[in-house]
Design a protein that fits this description.
The complex is a heterotrimer. Chain A is an all-alpha fold. Chain A has 32 helices and six strands. In chain A, strand 2 (about 75) and strand 3 (about 80) form a beta hairpin. Chain B is about 35% helix and about 30% strand. In chain B, strand 2 (about 145) and strand 3 (about 150-155) form a beta hairpin. In chain B, helix 1 (about 1-20) runs antiparallel to helix 2 (about 25-45) and helix 2 packs antiparallel against helix 3 (about 50-75). By secondary structure, chain C is an all-alpha fold. Helices cover about 80% and strands about 0% of the residues of chain C. Classes of the chains: A mainly alpha, B alpha+beta, C mainly alpha. Chains in contact: A-B, A-C, B-C. The interface of A and B includes residues 792, 796, 802 and 803 of A.
């Protein structure tokens, strides 16, 4: 069991192999085989995640750092070493469990959903590839590995959003545009993250989260753990102190053996490690204690300021990846991808990477007060803005997309007020029920397409619906983009438009039940998962605002409780529009229930959505004996330094519940009573006094895209046009190239060609030739060919030589 | 002799002139034979009998016969109808004056330089004196001989002589270094002479200088012998050729009386196996020693020294030491030339033989008339080239035959026609 | 004893005559014979000088010259024969194909 962490590299290798197999050989394999490869790869990662979970329990929550074999170090420069190290601790295992678990379910679901797609194998290859990168992101022990995963999942997101890039009628173009939009917006965020990483490296000289042997949470870290939460009892405070290895040692023999086996002294804190040998978080703690000044060459800044800058840069990255204001605009468009992708990447896992990173960097955010405030404001306003927009949407997936943005806002706001545990809790629960909702919506869409197919005569072939599937998606997206109000559904059928639905409760009972469970969970109705997690956030913000007197807390609480109301409202609106009433179209009337491979994940996730919330129930409300109190927070406390147990405030919980239930009732009354209006393709709120204008704004998605278009796109395009037409084309090409370069070159060339080459060089060469020919011609007559001339020439030579030789003898006389 | 030279010389010149002027090539060749015979006669007069013979045989004989043979073979007796003078070739108008000037100047230069240099009165530079050392002192062991400071020879034992060594002219101090003693003799050597330094006598050796004539032995089949008396116990010795052992009448006294320390005049005796006795000059019946079955060789120069020889019982008795060298060969004779040819000029001689061989092969190849083989080869080539010729013919549109006239051939035939 | 200078003078006369023959005759065989005459003149001078200096080396040179001359005559006459065979002429003025 101690060796389980050695399996961590497999988390990356297995999906990589799966992706490789499917990418290279998938085209030749049957769908069944392709799906099997993908699902097995995903399931194996889940198994490994479970094994790691058992390891952590057995080892007393002791974090393990793994150097994968055959990879001795990663980046080595003169004095820089960035190892490829993987970290197993409670935080990463939490992420692992729900990512691999939900991911496996979505793989199974995708097997049914993507049935018949011509690029089936590629879809599964991308999914596995996404798995590999996501697990790199989660298990990496340094910011650079996190960044690798971060970029990798971004790439996979891009590939999967634009998966149907070749759809007919321009839909494929829109799909790929959505992919590009996601890519570009994420680049803005990645820029911030990179700047943050650079700054971290400059400040700390390393990128490691924690070094081997370093304790993420020293034993005495949580001395004030309970004091912050005012309703906390002493018992719970004590129980939460069971954190350090020393104290947990007596609990299980495994740890004792572990300690003995290593033979190392058990430290309860990191005081024995010099600052340089600590990870970034440990160093940050030390620096803050020492009041360290970070040297930037010409100037130096105190560590707190530097941390604020770092975290602000990281916030930009979070805003990009986790779809926060102002960079959330890509996520609704990302619904262009297949629904399993929306469920896996754009609801459950990838978009939570930002929250994960912030929780991982809780030390930074805890110390950076300004950033925390900004984070709170960003998150809370994202939650309310997205919640409002969701009310005004007709597209079933788009509503869920804005809901996702809104819920991510909840999490980010929770991080902002310091409720890291609550943020992670909500992240997990949200992953479950939002995946459930997306898969449910996929099931609905699938059913609608089938219904449409059957209704329009060319159906009747049961599940033989491959081209139809694509078509349906294409038209869905098209309608989604165009927003024409007089949408009738007759000319362009949109299976995602809720106006075309209605009455599906009878047709798709399993989907309906699970969907309602997901809705209630999301709306925060007791005892579903969302109730516990959302309440924890609200309670924490309530405490932060009311008891600690922080402005952020007030803002968060105020905005979030309203957003919670909106959540309940738009979700129940959706349920009513989709499932209740009478079918508004023939397609809806004939929609069948989906295949078992799609329904089973819904059921599993439905069960999870009900019960997952109980893993972190607050103490003191009667569940302690059943589930244990705030187990999840305790679990995370082994890794997250600045975590605290949320308080349970009956007033807040009750108020939130009341608001949610009343919002549901309100939505039920409004949409249940005005079916005629919906049948005409209009919303009942649209013409109502006071809220009509607000609804129209929400329907237009608050004009974010238009504002971006006007503020960024158009100036950018104008600048680009100027650069391209004027600077590049007119100046560089026409003027500089033609006039300066070409003409100058030609001039020099002419000079070199005529006077130099023809005159001098050719002159020399020809001159030599001419001289040689002239001399030869002149000497030609010498060679008469007659022997006698040669003889006489020889004789003359002899005479000359003789004269020279005999001169002394001649002169003697 | 000078008259003979003048006559022969004038004859040679005249026949050479006639050779040039003769219209008939055969006559020219015959005149040239006369000139060559004249030159051979000159060789004889100039102490070169061997070359004279070769001149006659090789030149006047072989070469000129070859010339005549070729002339007659080609029928070219009248080919040289006229000399260049009077030729209508306008190209060579400049030729006669140039030749005249060149010939005139060469004749002038030669004549002037010969007359001015006085070559006939030049003296041959003298050779340095040659000397050798003969160890004939029985009591002295091996010695080293120095002339001045120069080591002539080392480890010279009794009864042996060194080679002849060139020594500086005039007085030279010769040191003979024995084991313990050193004997110094001052000798005076003249140029162009050869001498033998002989050490003899019991006890302290005496050194005498004996002139040794190594020049050509002019008498036929004879050798040159010098007898030296180095036996101190007798006043003088007599050398008698006893002829046949038992015939008292054919005794021939070669040297009547030779006192101690003296050497005889050179005896020129024909080669034979002789029996010589050396007797006391005063008591002719008292035999000193004898040279039995003594091989007399021609063209040698020998020295016979009568010296005391140690015998086994420690006493001495008279005996002889003979050293012999080759005499110089006859100048210009075949022996002299052969000697040089096989010593100094051996490599050029071999190369010359190779050259002759090559010339023989070359002459055969050049005169060999290419007949059947050549035609066969031409036929073979034609078989190969005919398709190619047809291809070319088809391409250029002209008939190309392998028998098309070649450019040099056409020109050559035209030249032969005029 | 012949005075060396007289012998050498004779050789000069013969040499000049040979030179004249080489330069003026048109018959290739006669030209060749004139060359032989020149060689003989040279030989005479060599022998005269050898006698003057008492050096047999001069005789050796004469020996070599005679031998080389014999070889030369063999090859040269073969050449003349070959030329005559192709050109039907041994007039050296007809042989000027090497004209530049």
């Amino acid at each position: 069991m101690e060796n389980y962490p050695q399996l961590v590299p497999l988390l990356i290798i297995i999906p990589s192999v799966g992706a490789f197999l499917n990418l290279v050989f998938g085209a030749r394999l049957r769908e069944q085989a392709v799906a099997t490869i993908g699902i097995i790869a995903a399931a194996l990662t889940f198994v490994i995640a479970v094994l790691l979970y058992t390891y952590l329990y057995a080892s007393g929550f002791e974090a393990a750092i793994i150097n994968p074999p055959f990879l001795d170090g990663w980046i080595r420069l003169v004095d820089v070493e960035i190892p490829w190290q993987m970290r197993v601790d409670t935080l990463s295992v939490t992420m692992l469990l729900f990512v691999t678990g939900v991911g496996t379910l979505i793989h199974i679901y995708a097997m049914g959903y993507m049935h018949g797609d011509p690029r089936f194998h590629r879809f599964f290859a991308y999914l596995n590839m996404f798995f590999a990168f996501m697990l790199i992101l989660i298990t990496g022990n340094n910011f650079l590995m996190l960044f690798v995963g971060w970029e990798g999942v971004g790439l996979c997101s891009f590939l999967l959003i634009g998966f149907w890039f070749d759809k007919a009628k321009g839909v494929g173009w829109r799909n790929s545009n959505a992919a590009r939009k996601a890519m570009i917006v994420n680049r803005v965020g990645d820029f911030g993250l990179m700047m943050g990483i650079f700054l971290i490296f400059w400040t700390f000289g390393t990128l490691d989260f924690y070094r081997p042997g370093e304790l993420a949470v020293p034993a005495d870290a949580h001395s004030e753990y309970g004091e912050e939460s005012h309703s906390e009892t002493e018992e719970s405070a004590e129980s939460t102190l069971v954190l350090a290895a020393q104290e947990t040692a007596p609990e299980g023999e495994a740890e004792g053996g572990h300690g003995a086996a290593t033979g190392e002294p058990e430290y309860t804190n990191n005081d024995h490690i010099v600052t340089d040998q600590l990870g970034v978080f440990g160093q940050a703690e030390r620096f803050i204690e020492e009041g360290h000044e970070v040297d930037f060459g010409p100037f130096s800044l105190p560590i707190e300021t530097v941390l604020t800058i770092i975290t602000l840069f990281m916030l930009i990255g979070v805003a990009g990846k986790s779809a926060q204001i102002p960079l959330f605009v890509w996520l609704p468009d990302a619904m262009a991808g297949p629904t399993p992708v929306s469920a896996l990447i754009h609801a459950a896992t990838m978009v939570t990477a930002g929250v994960y990173m912030m929780v991982r960097s809780n030390v930074f955010f805890y110390e950076a007060e300004l950033t925390s405030f900004i984070v709170t404001v960003v998150g809370a306003s994202t939650a309310i803005v997205a919640g409002v927009i969701a009310v005004g949407q007709w597209d079933i997936k788009r509503v869920l997309a804005y809901s996702t943005v809104s819920q991510l806002g909840f999490m980010v706001a929770a991080v902002g007020i310091g409720a890291y545990g609550a943020a992670m809790f909500h992240l997990v629960t949200h992953a479950c029920f939002k995946a459930l909702l997306f898969l449910g919506s996929g099931s609905v869409i699938h059913g609608m397409e089938h219904g449409h197919h059957i209704a329009h005569g060319h159906g009747g072939h049961g599940h033989d619906d491959t081209p139809h599937d694509e078509e349906a998606h294409a038209s869905a997206h098209k309608a989604d983009e165009e927003h024409h109000p007089d949408h009738s559904g007759e000319t362009e059928f949109d299976p995602q438009d809720m106006r075309n639905m209605g009455g599906l409760r009878a047709k798709m009972p399993v989907t309906y039940v699970t969907y309602v469970i997901g809705t209630l969970a999301l709306a925060g109705i007791f005892p579903f998962a969302g109730f516990w997690s959302k309440d924890e956030i609200l309670a924490d913000s309530w405490v932060a605002g009311l008891f600690d007197g922080e402005l952020a807390g007030f803002i968060a609480f105020g905005l979030l409780i309203v957003a919670a109301g909106f959540t309940a409202f738009y979700m129940w609106r959706q349920v009513v529009l989709v499932f209740h009433g009478e079918p508004r179209t023939e397609a809806a009337a004939r929609a069948p229930e989906s295949a078992p491979s799609m329904v089973i994940p819904l059921l599993v996730l439905g069960v999870l959505s009900i019960f997952v919330g109980f893993m972190n129930v607050p103490s003191g409300i009667g569940f302690d004996s059943i589930f244990g109190a705030h187990v999840f927070t305790d679990w995370l406390a082994h890794t997250v330094l600045h975590i605290h147990v949320a308080s349970f405030n009956p007033l807040v919980a009750g108020g939130a519940l009341l608001i949610a239930i009343s919002a549901i009732i309100l939505a039920g009354r409004i949409y249940g009573s005005s079916r005629e209006t919906v049948l005409q393709g209009r919303d009942p709120l649209e013409n109502r006094e006071g809220v009509g204008s607000l609804w129209r704004v929400a329907n237009a998605r608050m004009y974010w895209d238009q504002v971006y278009g006007a503020v960024i796109e158009q100036p950018f395009n104008r600048l680009a046009k100027f650069l391209a037409d004027t600077l590049d084309w007119a100046f560089w090409h026409d003027y500089f190239h033609d006039t300066v370069l070409a003409k100058g070159f030609r001039t020099v060339g002419n000079i070199l060609a005529r006077p130099v080459d023809l005159g001098i060089i050719d002159g020399i060469v020809n001159g030599i030739g001419r001289v040689v020919r002239g001399v030869g011609g002149g000497l030609r007559p010498v060679q008469t060919g007659y022997v006698r001339t040669y003889a006489v020439t020889l004789l003359i030579g002899v005479v000359v030589v003789l004269v020279l030789l005999l001169l002394p003898l001649i002169q003697r006389g | 002799m000078t008259e003979l030279f003048l006559v022969v010389g004038v004859l040679a010149v005249i026949s050479a002139v006639f050779m040039l002027l003769s219209d008939n090539a055969v006559h020219s060749a015959l005149f040239l034979v006369i000139t060559m015979v004249g030159i051979a006669f000159m060789f004889l007069l100039l102490n070169a009998p061997f070359l004279a013979m070769i001149q006659i045989t090789v030149y006047a004989g072989a070469i000129m016969v070859l010339f005549l043979f070729v002339i007659m073979l080609l029928g070219a007796e009248r080919a040289d109808v006229s000399s260049l003078i009077g030729s209508d070739n306008r190209k060579f108008r400049w030729y006669i004056p140039v030749v005249a000037v060149a010939i005139g100047s060469i004749f002038f230069i030669f004549a002037l330089s010969i007359l001015n240099s006085g070559v006939a009165t030049r003296q041959i530079p003298a050779d340095p004196p040659q000397a050798r050392f003969l160890h004939a002192a029985a009591d002295v062991g091996a010695v080293e001989v120095y002339a001045g400071e120069t080591l002539l020879a080392a480890d010279v034992t009794f009864g042996t002589a060194t080679d002849f060594v060139a020594l500086p002219e005039g007085a030279t101090s010769v040191r003979i270094v024995a084991d313990a003693a050193e004997y110094v003799v001052d000798v005076n050597l003249e140029a162009d002479t050869s001498s033998t330094l002989i050490a003899y006598g019991a006890g302290t050796p005496q050194v005498s200088v004996i002139p040794t004539d190594r020049s050509t032995v002019t008498d036929q089949r004879s050798g040159r012998y010098v007898v030296f008396n180095g036996y101190a116990d007798l006043e003088a010795v007599r050398v008698i050729d006893i002829g046949t052992e038992f015939d008292e009448n054919d005794n021939n006294t070669l040297v009547e009386s030779l006192p101690f320390g003296e050497y005889s005049a050179p005896l020129l005796v024909e080669e034979e196996t002789a029996n010589w006795t050396i007797v006391d000059a005063n008591e002719p019946d008292d035999l000193v020693t004898r040279l039995e079955a003594f091989e007399l060789e021609r063209d040698t120069a020998s020295l016979i020294a009568v010296v005391p020889l140690p015998v086994a019982d420690g006493t001495v008795r008279p005996g002889t030491v003979v050293v012999k060298v080759e005499a110089a060969p006859d100048f210009g004779g075949p022996r002299a030339i052969g000697y040089k040819l096989f010593t100094t000029f051996l490599l050029p001689f071999q190369l010359l033989a190779l050259l002759l061989l090559a010339a023989m092969v070359g002459a055969i190849v050049l005169t060999h008339r290419e007949t059947s083989k050549a035609r066969e080869r031409a036929g073979g080539r034609r078989r190969v080239s005919r398709p190619l010729a047809q291809v070319i013919a088809a391409q250029v549109g002209q008939d190309i035959t392998p028998d098309a006239p070649q450019l040099p051939g056409g020109e050559g035939s035209r030249a032969a026609g005029d | 004893m012949i005075p060396t200078d007289m012998a050498v003078l004779l050789s000069v006369v013969l040499f000049v005559l040979g030179t004249l023959g080489v330069l003026l005759k048109r018959n290739a065989i006669l030209v060749f014979m004139s060359v032989e005459l020149m060689l003989n003149a040279t030989n005479l001078a060599l022998v005269a000088f050898a006698q003057q200096w008492g050096q047999e080396t001069g005789h050796l040179f004469v020996f070599f010259i005679i031998t080389v001359a014999a070889a030369e005559v063999a090859v040269g006459l073969a050449l003349i024969v070959a030329i005559f065979r192709t050109k039907k002429s041994i007039n050296i003025d007809d042989l000027h194909q090497l004209e530049g």
